[in-house]
Specification:
The structure is a homodimer.
Chain A: E1 3-6, H1 15-28, E2 33-37, H2 43-47, H3 59-64, H4 69-72, E3 74-75, E4 81-84, H5 91-97, H6 106-112, E5 120-124, H7 131-139, E6 142-148, H8 151-155, H9 157-170, E7 176-185, H10 190-203, E8 212-213, H11 216-220, H12 228-231, H13 236-253
The complex binds adenosine-5'-triphosphate (2 copies) and magnesium ion (2 copies).
């Protein structure tokens, strides 16, 4: 598995935070990583300190205008981590692609040509199951689902599973649920523990053992345009994402 | 102003929590309130303890199949609070409405006939600016924007303002930004205070003085199907939403 989509239609569960920090930690081990920002909010782009207002080309241009990936690719402050940035221009993609030829597979044909240049590709998705997310699910081999340990987080998992099955049947038979990341976990809180147990019952061994509890340094780091590893390497937040990265490598490279 | 839409395309900022708790507190003062769930996740529906799996009719039927509101309306555990429930069936609405006649104004024509039966109507929206949210913005007189006091929350406000201006020009000239609610505010955290100050500079007197700090009882209450007022009336969370409700009444009824 090389290309992973961060997907969950529930909002604010840690998709961007997990995509950005997992990608950065892997790049820190000198693996070549691409972060593809497919959310019109552009949080992954600004979370890495890139100014969204003067981009010469964005993921919109790649997806809709067939701009070569290499013209849009940007370096980040982290060696070995590159990004396809985006901004609100991408909002137009969902509308413009509706009547386009092979609208669900645009991203997969783009990425296929570049997979050899990277060890990992992470696609950050918006909080919906629309055409942008469908493109990501068609292009990816694995899905990473951040699940916030709160009540509403459980509600959407059934719908997400249905969407994944539909994609597997019609667009991307090799797509698998690669892993579930429990975010904002609080061991002292009954409900948080109950949600974690429920998710483990539902997804079993697909749930990463490394959980990501709430950590103020994690929420501060994007305001400095840095991943947690560079913002505060000694924080609990950095420790948790490094543990997740180690488990990720174990799981997907050990074979 | 009678009809309010809870809108912010950033996910997980407290749209549902604010819609549900503001509506419940107003109903507790014997004002007749309708909560309209327009998010396919159906969190407002389940947050009030309603089983989403055996609904005979949902907001999908009202919006797309012209089902009368009165056939879909359900009572809640709170007297004077009614809900138009929903579930994932609503996902189909965005696709089916794309080519429908007057697709942006479906909700406004539905609600116009029922406004006289309620003192307030709150529409909970999904974390996107697609056709469902556009319907809510076309139907509402006021927009309530929950803004989470975190870095990424500031990013989307510019795009949201642009969308509102577009709706005001083409679909709903009387639409106004009714108020900004600062959620998950943490007075001890520098970044949280900076975000709050930035939002107050941008939106000035539109920002409610009552802020809603993070409170574990608020996040637990939906798992009991209860608004905070019924789950734990003596909690800080209930106090904060009651303060917000008092300010809301002052602002929109004092004239
Ligand atoms: N472990 C954590 N500890 C503290 N804060 C966190 C943590 N993970 C994420 N956050 C914060 O919570 C908020 C939501 O996270 P994030 O934006 O990554 O979620 P998302 O799923 O990408 O949201 P959206 O649905 O809008 O795309 C952000 O402000 C982020 O900084
Ligand atoms: N003041 C608060 N204190 C603690 N938890 C809160 C508070 N407000 C909301 N939450 C919790 O944070 C999460 C996000 O809130 P909520 O679901 O209301 O946001 P939303 O904007 O409606 O999300 P979405 O974008 O997915 O519709 C939920 O789990 C909710 O219970
Ligand atoms: Mg995100
Ligand atoms: Mg919601």
């Amino acid at each position: 598995m090389k290309t992973f989509a961060l997907v969950n239609q529930k909002g604010g569960v840690g998709k961007t935070t997990t995509a950005l920090n997992l990608a950065s930690c892997l790049a820190a081990t000198e693996r070549r990583v691409l972060l593809f920002d497919l959310d019109p909010q552009g949080n992954a782009t600004s979370g890495l300190g890139i100014n969204k207002n003067n981009l010469k080309s964005t993921s919109y241009d790649v997806l809709v205008k067939n701009q070569p990936l290499s013209d849009t690719l940007l370096d980040t402050k982290i060696p070995h981590l590159k990004i396809i940035p985006t901004n609100t221009q991408l909002v137009a993609a969902e509308i413009e692609l509706v009547s386009a030829f092979s609208r669900e597979k645009r991203l997969s044909s783009v990425l296929a040509a570049y997979e050899k240049d990277f060890d990992y590709i992470f696609i950050d998705c918006p909080p919906s199951l629309g055409l942008l997310t469908v493109n990501a699910l068609s292009a990816a081999q694995g899905i990473l689902v951040p699940v916030q340990c709160e009540y509403y987080a459980l509600e959407g998992l059934g719908e997400l599973t249905q969407t994944i099955e539909m994609i597997q049947q019609h667009l991307n038979p090799s797509l698998k649920v690669a892993g579930i990341v429990l975010t904002m976990f609080d061991g002292r809180n009954n409900l948080s523990r109950q949600v974690a147990e429920e998710v483990e019952r539902f997804f079993q061994d697909k749930v990463f053992k490394a959980r990501i509890p709430r950590n103020v340094k994690i929420s501060e780091s994007p305001s400095h345009g840095l991943p947690i590893l560079l913002y505060d390497a000694f924080s609990k937040g950095a420790e948790n994402y490094m543990a997740l990265t180690a488990e990720f490598i174990q799981k997907f490279e050990a074979q």
